[in-house]
């Protein structure tokens, strides 16, 4: 049975903590780290028949979108790349292992930077950004989580199609 809401509970802090947990952990689905764990390097750039993207293209897309959301949230002067070409690499495979690792590192660093915004009580979760058209920090946090989870599912499907997902 659910506990009744206590009037002295800081709902804002609870929500912030829940959002941070949502971005840091996988509770109802696989994490990005789990989706790419032990992925053979030679499969990063394989695009299965009838699918539009390789795992590399999905990783780079996750990186670009999360960076875009972070910059939009914290920088009123930021201009998003053109859609869709600014959000999808045409390279089917990473140029090298370094590019792969740099993309993964940036995903983690940008996630940490966004989490820092969520953890800072000076950032209002609900106040629309003055430079947007109704977006706020809460919406952007949910967008990162939702968008990443969607594409993590696609990565897992590609791995299954390539017989490269652990049973």
UniProtKB/TrEMBL annotation:
Domain DinB-like, residue spans: 27-155
Organism of derivation: Spirosoma endbachense
Domain of life: Bacteria
Entry protein name: DUF664 domain-containing protein
InterPro entries linked to this entry: DinB-like, DinB/YfiT-like
Alphabetical list of Pfam families matching this protein: DinB_2 (PF12867)
